[in-house]
Design a protein that fits this description.
2 copies of one chain form a homodimer.
Chain A (H helix, E strand, L loop, with lengths): L1 E4 L6 E6 L4 H20 L2 H17 L1 H12 L3 H24 L6 E3 L12 E7 L3 E4 L13 H9 L3 E4 L5 H17 L7 E4 L2 H9 L5 E5 L2 H12 L7 E4 L5 E4 L1 H20 L11 E5 L4 H10 L9 H15 L5 E2 L16 E6 H6 L1 H4 L7 E7 L2 H8 L5 E7 L7 H9 L2 E6 L38 E7 L20 E3 L2 E3 L11
Parallel strand pairs in A: 3-18, 5-6, 5-8, 6-7, 8-9, 10-11, 10-15, 11-14, 13-14, 15-16
Antiparallel strand pairs in A: 1-2, 3-4, 4-17, 12-13, 18-19
Chain lengths: ~500, ~500
């Protein structure tokens, strides 16, 4: 049983929502499998129109959805309105990806008797995997939830979706699913293209269900690892795309600290406190030169920040416990009064923790654990060598940020060290705020994700739900349109080793 | 301890080769990690030249290598000479992939304050993962071994390789590694770009080694699953690209059987008996209309085939046991005398097994297990409906083959059913013989592989060993050449959502 909770008051919101039974999960997956051929067979242009219709449906219900979201998350109207707009725009981006057509990687090789070995006609493209399970996150009730990036990219790929609702916003999840389901039905979609399930047991059953072919997950390292293990211990293991949490290291060079420590302190505090620190891209571990006095400057700025109640009681408890573990480490100091551990319910206090590089290196395991909430750890290093040694202990992360100056001798080594362990390298900026573009990458080496090759945000997120299929000597009437002679869809294709851009046929014109 | 065995005589070949100790594996992985930045930093054109040099080295030592290979595998000179040529050509293909440059998926988005959400400068490309473990196969001592597709694609990606030698051709493996290592050294590569290890324990240590970032494996379902489990139970699970065995279903429609049953029987027998049935693409399960008398025709052709000694004693034993399991199934008949179970050592007898569709469906689990060696299972179906029901029980496979006639009403349903469960769909041909091209896909759904998104053959095999990295507002001097303003490499790039072909700069000209 799930029920919405208002983080501001602790009061319940909306009706009780029963857990989905294992039999109901099985039925949902079975319906998804039955709907799969319809969605897979939809021409790219029509699938694009379907996604655009979902985006319009979200926008049409903006006020209702944002009110529901605010009641269950306390994230506030401006943030939620922006997030809904971004979520709808994300559906539009995948519609654009489908119209462009390059995503299917159409590749044609003519027969070649002189090749080593010789070959006949070969044509390759990416095709949908099948039903996908999506686990919604707590901290983005739109962008990483029922209508979020995992759902959008799976549907774009041609894969039906079964979403496991996050218990932090169950009422919003139900209503979002209703709105999407109505829009799907209006577009002629059969039952089963999108289904919502509730409850932890339902989530495990979903990952184990034989009809499910891949999983998208955003959430905690513990929960993610448990479901990853379910996926990998199936008789037929399936891809598990888990985004599990990230420490997001920042390096401030001596030159940058000397030139603009005030600006850096302000920017860092703003980024770390955004959404009360409940961003997976929160800068959680910051390396600063010891001479610059940056830790105190950061603390002064963080002290000015407003901390709203955290999303769930479990997150608030996890934050207090994580903070306690760090503060037990020898050499670690809290720079703010905090009372973080004493506060009640969803409300916690912000904190800035500081430690020197030697003490950090002696206890890196504890100090590189993500502490989800309004805290950042500032590590003071004495020299570039010490910084390099400390960076070597930083685990895989979604982002790495470098603050450096022009012709800064410390910039290149720090950039190289960060690039080796992160999915996005930011220069003189901040990691929070994940743009939804063709070039975005929101992923990274373990432990940040369970699938280092893939992204959960940006155009290439679609790749997670597609598999290659090569057709050998298959006559035209049995080939998908993307691979037929004459390029009827007008999409980019690689022909006999040469990339070609295709025409405009697929973009609204005639073949 | 490993030692080569001549399959023809059972005699030992070459000296004893000691197992690599866990400490030696650790040292090899550590050297690979140290060599990684050098290989990753090599410009695409220079890395292409390195691969081409490896191909030349193989060709220069063709006679020596083929003689060694024949002594340890008995595959015969024509086949081995052809396989070496294909292996060298494979290195050339990856050199071409590097010169082309599209593999790195360079994608640039200009700052856009009007986007939802707004964004600054973002540039994405694929970068090398890090050291890769490669497990060589028994049945292709060149193409899927030390210098094979996994090694070629990993080096092309910029990843050092530690190869676990297959015990079926240990002497050849050592000599191949020496030749590659000399060529690498001549090209200025540091120690650690390629290392060979021996022994099962070394293999497990390799998959568990913290420096290893991905595994390429070709081999048995049992061995593959055990190593997959090691990879997935690491604290930081890594991608495991296992090609584990495949039943490779074939469907012959009623019309095709009526039009050319003699040709089909001959083609099937030739494909199934190629290399004494020791191909991962062997057509192992063939659905034929019951009226056409095809099982006996196939058996007559198979009876004419020459069966050479199998590669290893373990494979021969596995073949006999697998055949026994099938022959115990009610309704299954052996069409040849065989004496398969009575034969000694590496020598076995060919077999054709037949069963009707009802008996097949009652025992699909046993009859869809790959039996590696010279046998194929022919299933007689009475009508298209029965065929569809039987096909629904066929597990994931590398290939599916359809024999149909023009305007054949049974073609499309069978093609759709096959396409849903295979990585390559062949029309009126045979699955053995895997061309090495841009459009090739050698992979498929579980249980054929452990990574349905990826291929072990063809240009896109490189994708397995690359991860995305996005640069946000990073100045030109800290960017890789592939992402710099002005496209200095002249490679295909997607700029502000539009695919561009780039110039010829990267193909030997000047920027």
């Amino acid at each position: 049983m799930t029920r919405g909770i208002d983080p501001r008051t602790g009061a319940t919101v909306g009706p009780e929502i029963p857990d989905t039974t294992p039999a109901q999960v099985r039925a949902a997956c079975s319906r998804a499998a039955q709907a799969a051929p319809w969605l897979a067979g939809l021409p790219f242009a029509e699938r694009a129109e379907l996604l655009a219709a979902l985006g319009r449906a979200l926008r049409e219900h903006q006020d209702e959805l944002c009110a529901l979201a605010d009641a269950e998350t306390a994230l506030g109207s401006p943030r939620l309105t922006g997030e809904l707009a971004r979520t709808a725009a994300q559906l539009d981006l995948f519609a654009e990806v489908l119209r462009d057509g390059a995503f299917c990687e159409a590749t044609l090789d003519s027969p070649d008797p002189d090749a080593v070995p010789p070959h006949t006609d070969l044509r390759r493209m990416l095709v949908p995997l099948g039903p996908v399970a999506v686990f919604a996150a707590s901290n983005f009730p739109f962008a990483f939830s029922v209508a979020g990036g995992d759902t959008a990219s799976a549907l774009a790929a041609g894969c039906p979706v079964v979403v496991k609702a996050h218990p932090g916003h169950p009422g919003l999840s139900v209503r979002t699913a209703e709105i999407l389901t109505e829009a799907l039905a209006a577009a002629g979609a059969p039952d089963g293209v999108l289904t919502l399930v509730h409850g932890e047991q339902a989530g495990r059953a979903l990952v184990a269900d034989p009809a499910v072919t891949a999983v998208g997950f955003t959430g905690s390292p513990g929960g993610g690892r448990a479901l990853f293990d379910v996926a990998m211990s199936r008789p037929d293991p399936i891809p598990f795309y888990g985004e599990l949490g990230s420490i997001n290291p920042v390096v401030v060079t001596a030159a940058a600290a000397a030139a603009r420590s005030g600006e850096i302190a302000e920017g860092l505090a703003g980024s770390a406190m955004l959404g009360s620190g409940q961003f997976c891209t929160k800068p959680g571990l910051v390396f600063v030169p010891s001479a610059a006095g940056l830790p105190q400057r950061v603390a002064d700025k963080v002290a000015e920040a407003t901390v709203t109640p955290l999303l769930t009681a479990r997150i608030a408890t996890g934050y207090r416990e994580g903070l306690d573990r760090m503060l037990e480490v020898p050499g670690v100091r809290a720079l703010l009064d905090g009372q973080a551990s004493a506060a009640d319910g969803h409300q916690v206090a912000a904190q800035v923790v500081t430690v020197d590089a030697q003490a950090f290196m002696a206890n890196a395991a504890v100090l590189t654990e993500e502490c989800f909430g309004p805290v950042t750890v500032v590590v003071s290093y004495s020299a570039p060598d010490e910084l390099a040694a400390a960076l070597a202990l930083v685990p895989g992360a979604l982002t790495g940020t470098l603050h450096a100056e022009p012709e800064d001798p410390d910039a290149a080594p720090a950039a190289t060290a960060l690039a080796a362990r992160v999915g996005r390298l930011i220069h003189n900026g901040w990691p929070t705020g994940v743009a939804v573009t063709w070039s975005q990458h929101h992923g990274g080496p373990s432990p940040a994700t369970t699938a280092v090759l893939h992204t959960s945000v940006g155009a290439t997120a679609i790749r997670r739900f597609l598999r290659p299929l090569t057709y050998q000597d298959v006559p035209g009437h049995l080939l998908p349109a993307a691979l037929r002679d004459g390029n009827p869809l007008g999409i980019p294709r690689r022909v006999d080793g040469k990339l070609t851009l295709g025409g405009v046929a697929g973009r609204g014109g005639t073949p």
